[in-house]
């Protein structure tokens, strides 16, 4: 029970204005602008907006848990709490006044949270402007400093704000200030003597009607004051355990109920009563710190307009412990509604809680924001119809910094303070950062000493003390949309700026473009944290638009005023480029063209450079059709400006995008013509003349069409330019080609009902325009025709210009003709004219005539065709294409006829006559087309073979016919027989492709094909492509070559050919080995150097017959290879030895340069081959057989040296000695050294005293022996050293002590010393994890059975998600046999960086 304060004690309370309090009030007068106390939460209106698209409900339980059950829960954190810096808990190292801690921005650079600042901050100033107004309360700040200096009030420690501002001090005083303009000191509660007894004020709270103040003290006491009279109402000393500081004290919405939280981590409910004039306080423990420490509490407060909200009857309270969040209801009875664990986090991070009412889905409900570290979670609390509370998790906010404070400024905007005292303003819905403010100048007060309870001896837990390092709960208070920050010597207030203030702030900093962009975002309703705009959208837009107009005038005046008077024209242009385009853009956005073309244009016209920039800015808007009408004066000035800059193409583009029907032609186009240095004229014809003279053809057509509804005159003007050179057979200039292309496009647009160059012709004019164009095209003569003019000049001109494109235009036009009788008459008339012009005129090429008849064939092939064309004309075209007077344009004529047939023109011809004429004209593609229609696929092979341009495609054609389904067996058989008939021609065309075709489809006819091939070299090429997988085949062989010419031609070119797909049936080759032997015989003739390489890959040949073939052609090396393969090693050796001896005889002859002599290279090559032969076979021979190989070889090399005289060239001797040493080195590998020396000494020559001649050889052998002996000894020493090093490291790792990270089992989470089971061992891994052996056994973490069970780390194995332990069991056993004497298991890391070893604690521990 708290001590009671009766009327007597109340009278004894110190006067609120006694002593220094009254002096301070009189001495300090601060004049500050009146604070704006806007209720920024008025936007909690019913808005149909979702807080989060991904919300999900937390499951409800039938029976909510009790506080006691929650306290007894085991924390399921992945990592245990480990104090990283034990010195933080050393009370002796702290000053008892450490609550005066100033800014940590300068001293906290080593904080681990700063490591998260690698992400670069966004520069949001240019987007959102300055969102927050940062103001110093000078009056309050000055009085706080004065109180500390003059009356020893102490430094500020806590702040609470309502309609008054309360500041607690380190000497136990509570200073009450008004929030008016004067910020006068209203009350000074308490005294320094009481402060000496109770300690510093550690927490403050003002109730909702600002009538009571609760003060919590560092030594655990609490006091209640009347803010109206300044009287002490209650002094509470026994509401919670003694020796603990008050960390938080909070009023609820019930004025008789408050909550306090002490440094022991406990939470108590305080109930205030008054019985018979005596005030009392009853205390009830809500949460015991012995089960888990709470370090932050936050009751739910509702505003007056929400006092009837159904959720308020529960009096919700949020509590944040070191491991979880709890939401409980105090009324009508104590009940737990939700628990939420943090998960993994930094132990030094500060838990934060904040409530706010938020509108969502047409309902307003409270939302709880909580965080610890860098992730903010939002929980929406609702009450259903049954009265139960549901908690829904909203989208969380990921940050790149740790937080120490979280404050709602309204339902959409939150303000965060990070661990280095930077303020972040965040839009909650979009999670966009609006502004960042540096707060280090505040020198924020921290509550570290209270969390460490230094005033009572520091009896707090390590975890709570670590959290208290950055705790500033009592230094920040919010009320009415304002946030107050308490510094060591000052008080600051942060308020959202109004929209107009934000814009003006940018203007003061000369950020005009940014100010306009921000104002436009307010205009469009896309801005964030908007204050001061209300009403409907149209009203808001009107208000913002008026302000934007003022800014635009300011921008224009500023640009003109600050324009440099002197300097380069480019500098002046750049100056106006920064402003004028912005003014133009926003005038058009605001749809204020009147402002743009009157006042703004008049202003910029005062400066010629600004005027030019203004006019150039209009171009993109005109071209994008955002600006279709401008005033006459601006139009005139615009065209003059572009003409002066010689930008005529831009002028044309501007004209065709203008709505000339809305202009005053008497005024505007007279100005237009004047702009081009002509006299003032007022008719369209003269405007057209001006465009024509300046080659503005699109503009000319546009003016004709839009201004006068005249569509034929532009065509006449263009025809007059291109018709004369075309009729004379001359080439057109580039300008004339451009005009011709424009004419074609213009005609196409007119016939399609589209306006040129853009838009559409009015619907009522479309039929009239089409008729006019057709009548124009079919005119017999032009208006000014001469006597020499050909008939139908317009159609002739278009056909000569581009036949294909003109016919395409007609084809597109004919597509639109349905049941229009007049249109169908025009269609037939034009077709008749086309036939008359092109058939009777010899000036057209076959390609042009073919285009016409292809066009006709497509029209005639339509199901609803109404055209009539005489079939005789098609026969004339066929004769024209297939029976030319000369052989020119053969490919062109064939392609034209093919297109005609493919377009449906085949029905106009007699097929038999067409085939005869195509064969006579050598139109093989036409023949193929006809044969394919008649399914005569075999005859198509002849077409390919006769066509030099497509003859190699015959192989793919044959393969497709024989492989692809869809052809009948009779058709495939005919193609097969035709291919066999032409097989020799196919092989001559491309042996490689022919072999591929034979291997795929004619594998059973190889013998017959061989008999058909009469040319031996052609047969060689075919067999080589068929049998040799390394075959190098060749391009087609020119016809008419004899055998010698063919050989020379192929050997000269010999490009490689792909072997993909060639796979001859080996069974057929085994049945007919003479095919392979015939190929080997031909290979010996035409390419003997590749015989051995080919034999190594071939299999289907007989050794005896092949040996006879090689002997016939004297290929000794090949014969030796075959003998070796047969098993006659000695016979192969004798052949190689004979070759070597013959080359040695040639080599011993006189030579000028031995090293470059081809004979020496031959000797060396043959010797290497002979040595290789001996080495390959010595392993399978006995000693006598080896000597029979090596000693004759050695004798053969030494014989020339014995016979040589002293007059022999020394170079010969040196070369022979080097080769002999090579033989001796190879011999020593298979023959014992004594045997070699004995054989040398038994030689009669050296036995008679001529050992000096081979002294070098013997010494060389001895040197080789010494080198090999030294190499062996060195290698043995290195291996022994490595083995010793490995065993030492293994022994060190086995005997190394281990330091576990915690003193409890990582599975059962119980202290290992508390377990009493005798058979339970302790297993420690080098990764630091500790387990009971029974726990590991239950988790199936054993490898092996019996008394030598091996263990694997459960935590490391499961966290890395390796899968089943048994998968790596064999690897573990294989690599850890050397660990048999160790009781604890080494770590999981591998010194060589093996990825698997890094993931799993693969080493094991033995149990006892």
UniProtKB/TrEMBL annotation:
What domain of life does the UniProt record list for this protein's source? Eukaryota
Sequence intervals crossing the membrane: none
UniProt keyword annotations, A-Z: Metal-binding, Phosphoprotein, WD repeat, Zinc, Zinc-finger
Tell me one GO biological process term.
protein targeting to vacuole
Which CDD domains does this entry report, sorted A to Z? RING-H2_Vps8
| Family matches, as InterPro entries | Vps41/Vps8 (IPR045111), Vps8_central_dom (IPR025941), WD40/YVTN_repeat-like_dom_sf (IPR015943), WD40_repeat_dom_sf (IPR036322), WD40_rpt (IPR001680), Znf_RING (IPR001841), Znf_RING_Vps8 (IPR056939)
Cite the PROSITE patterns for this sequence. WD_REPEATS_2, ZF_RING_2
WD repeat copies, ranges: 194-235
Residues in RING-type domain copies:
1305-1357
Question: SMART domains in the record, alphabetically?
Answer: RING
Task: Quote the Gene3D superfamilies the UniProt record gives.
Answer: YVTN repeat-like/Quinoprotein amine dehydrogenase
Q: Which residue stretches belong to region Disordered? A: 1-24
GO cellular component labels? CORVET complex; early endosome; HOPS complex; late endosome
Show the GO MF annotations: zinc ion binding
Which protein family is it in? Answer: Belongs to the VPS8 family.
Q: What does this protein do?
A: Plays a role in vesicle-mediated protein trafficking of the endocytic membrane transport pathway. Believed to act as a component of the putative CORVET endosomal tethering complexes which is proposed to be involved in the Rab5-to-Rab7 endosome conversion probably implicating MON1A/B, and via binding SNAREs and SNARE complexes to mediate tethering and docking events during SNARE-mediated membrane fusion. The CORVET complex is proposed to function as a Rab5 effector to mediate early endosome fusion probably in specific endosome subpopulations.
Query: In its UniProt entry, what is this protein called?
Result: Vacuolar protein sorting-associated protein 8 homolog
Q: In which organism is this protein found? A: Phascolarctos cinereus (Koala)
